[in-house]
Give the backbone structure.
Amino acid sequence: MSSLRTWLAGLALAGVSAIAATAQAQPAASAGQQVYETRCKACHDGGNPRAPSRADLGQRAPGDIVTALTTGIMAPMAQGLSDADKQAVAAYLTTAAAPAEGAAPARAARASGAEMPQVAVKGPSVPDPKCATNPPISATPGDWASTGIDDRASRFQKNPGLTAADLPRLKVKWSFAMTGGGQPTVVGDWLFVTNRSGKFYALDTHTGCVHWSVDDLVSRTTPMVIKSPISPSGWLTVVGQNDRVVRAFDAQTGKELWRSARLEDHPISVLTGSPVIAGDRLLVPISSIEEAAAMSKTYSCCTFRGSLAALDLKTGKLLWKTSMIPEPGKVIREKDTGVKVQGPAGAALWAAPSLDRKRGLVYVVTGDSYTDIDTIGPDAIVALDIKTGAIKWRRQVTEKDNFVMGCGPASTSGNCPTPLGPDYDFGATPILMTLKGGKQVLVAGQKSGIVYGLNPDTGALLWKTTVGAGSALGGVEWGIGADDTKVYVPISDLGRLFSPAEAAKAKPGLNALDPATGAIVWSTPAPSAPCVYASDKGKPSRCIRSQSTPPAVIPGLVFQGALDGWFRAYDAKTGKIVWEDSTTSRTYDTVNGVKGQPGGGMDGMGPTIANGMIFVTSGNNGAARVGSNGVNVLLAYSVDGK
């Protein structure tokens, strides 16, 4: 999923001060400009939809850019740059492309301590004084405690505390400025959310005040919260970090209970899909950014193989780990520099797994291949035994989808596979559907724009339906949802929307499918609507109507956000838009002290609906391609803002 390059480029650097970098901006500008012109301009000024534009980069804190060049997605391209070079280009970008006036206070507040990363804190931070007490966590029927809310990952909230009659009265009750990371989870009055800045927060759902925070946890995964005797309070939360380590905390206090060993030794591997608890074990999908590293001529491509790991929930000890690629590795060729090209590689697990306890199975979907060696692992839907990790069946839907970034007529990396595939991997968790009469279908959506229905016993293909035009940036990108009768499929088609020659073929919007046959029940195209991206600084905004985020479903309604910052509710029967709100049409004075924080595009993680409230991040959730603001804003909607 090469679009992950953009959110990883925003990883925050603990201990790097935005104030210090800004102070160095003027003397460093000349050196920074030179670095940018020679190392960065071709992609970031070239209209590449995978890369944030220079204006988008200007909305980020300098430390975000330094991190991307040091330990993030751009590290392979930054080889040979000194620390001073990285600081200089960060200062140049964040000064030459300064944010609009409305966004300036956000940067000042960030520098003064609001949503600033802190260096390696062993325990939780002191609670916010406004949270005078930390009331006991108490479960309710309206909780949303994991990415997909249930084992089958339906994203269907059956007890939302909201109805269609409440829609006209929905208002933002509070907002919280944060870098963005995982989707929020909610149990009772407690909300848990991770950030790429290193902040893991426990917030009060009614006020947004901070019960506690852990300040050294860089993540874009969604916390899972369960009642468990493992934790002193009886409530446990587990989070996957970007560096392939999983940590468990007492959800009431933020005290760390255990941390796993690093689950993958490959230096460019990451955790992007959220861990899922299955009984006494934790299932962790493992991914990588090797697609981007392969842009470097000096990089020996490619050796990463996606895998699923199972940990003991009580201790974090590794129980089993299963690779998605079964074929042995071999050298393909040697470049003129002596660097070897090898494979097969790829099949990253970008998305959270879904569970089938009746069959004792866990379902995962895999990313593309990185080399031109044939392998059955990539672009596949896979069923594994929860207890042993043994693969029970595998359905590869696209063969020879061999892809790394930066390939084309001008490429000099020597790592490009031949022929180059379309980059149609999976980034959306599959959903297990039960039909009338009891038959079940496993539904999975691909970046190709095709949705598949499989027999969960054998992996046999039951149906497939083309919903979107498909592109390397979706098709179906980050997720689908379902109630008991329909599957709801957002379509991004972002790669086509960015291309004048292909834009007319794009089909962004929301669709409903019959899970029994794959037939399209209704299709609602994404409206063309105005938006305001802070990075456009008063110019007409590039309002991109791509719909890549997973939906949230409640009885009778489907909620979904778009890259242009519009958040909408759809009638589940007809697809009619029955409510909408432009999150970029105003700025927010947040409860954590940031004045005039702008909203932005919605990308990455979807909304959470719990106990009469809706929680959603505006500003791209860290997958920023357009509409990026560096610091995003978590919005809490309620009826009448009460």
About this structure: DSSP finds nine helices and 37 strands in the chain. The two ends are 39 Å apart (CA to CA).
